[in-house]
Each structure stands twice: as C-alpha cells, then as structure tokens.
Design brief:
Helix content: 25-40%
Radius of gyration: 30 Å
InterPro entries: Ribosomal_eS25, WH_DNA-bd_sf
Distance between the termini: 102 Å
Keywords: Ribonucleoprotein, Ribosomal protein
Largest sheet: 3 strands, antiparallel
Pfam families: Ribosomal_S25
Strand order of the largest sheet: 1-3-2
Protein name: 40S ribosomal protein S25
Family: Belongs to the eukaryotic ribosomal protein eS25 family.
Number of helices: 3
Mean pLDDT: 82
Structural class: alpha+beta
C-alpha cells in the first residue's frame, strides 16, 4: 500500500516562450501649459511687487513662478531693469540673469 509520489505538473503548452508579449508604454505626456500671453493689471502688479525681491531673476523663473508667456517675461525683465529695480549679472544671447538690488553699493 505504498503511494506514488506526487507528480510534477505537466509542462505548459507554450513551449518555453513568455506567456504574453511585452507591450510598450506610450510614455508620459506632459500637459500643455496655459500661460498668460497678455499682461493684465493683476499680472503687472504681481511682477512689479514680487520679482524685485527674488535673489535670482531670469526669463525661466518668471515663466515658472508667474505663469506668463516667454515673450511677456522678457518684456517684464527689460521693464524692471529700466526702472532700476533689478541688476544684470550675466548677459548672454540665450539667457539673461538678473538679481535684486541691494542697499549697499558694489
């Protein structure tokens, strides 16, 4: 009355290949930014109040923090410099970098 050992399950019928073929993901899609293209009174006041207090001011920073268009950010930076509220650090064709004015003169 000996029992036979439990049999191993029969091999799968796929013949050793993967059960499902790998599907490629579509990748992550970034949402289209909805930035302001016209400077209204509220945006202008916010630029004039907040931007001169930042330690680093560039076109990219204005776009990111104030949600404005790139061309609007360039115009705002030129306006702030003309008013004497910010000071230029680096003048490069690709990126203009400014800083706030300090009370002590350099």
């Amino acid at each position: 009355m000996f029992r036979a050992k439990a049999k191993a399950p029969p091999p799968s019928s796929s013949g050793g290949k993967a059960a499902k073929k790998k599907k490629w993901s579509k990748g992550k899609v970034k949402d289209k930014a909805q930035h302001a293209v016209v400077c209204d009174k509220a945006t202008f006041d916010r630029i004039m109040k907040e931007a001169p207090t930042w330690r680093l001011i560039s076109q990219s920073i204005l776009i990111e923090r104030l949600k404005v268009n790139g061309s609007l950010a360039r115009v705002a930076i030129r306006h702030l410099e003309k008013e004497g509220l910010i000071k230029r650090i680096v003048h490069h064709s690709g990126q203009l970098i400014y800083t706030r004015l300090t009370t002590a003169s350099d």
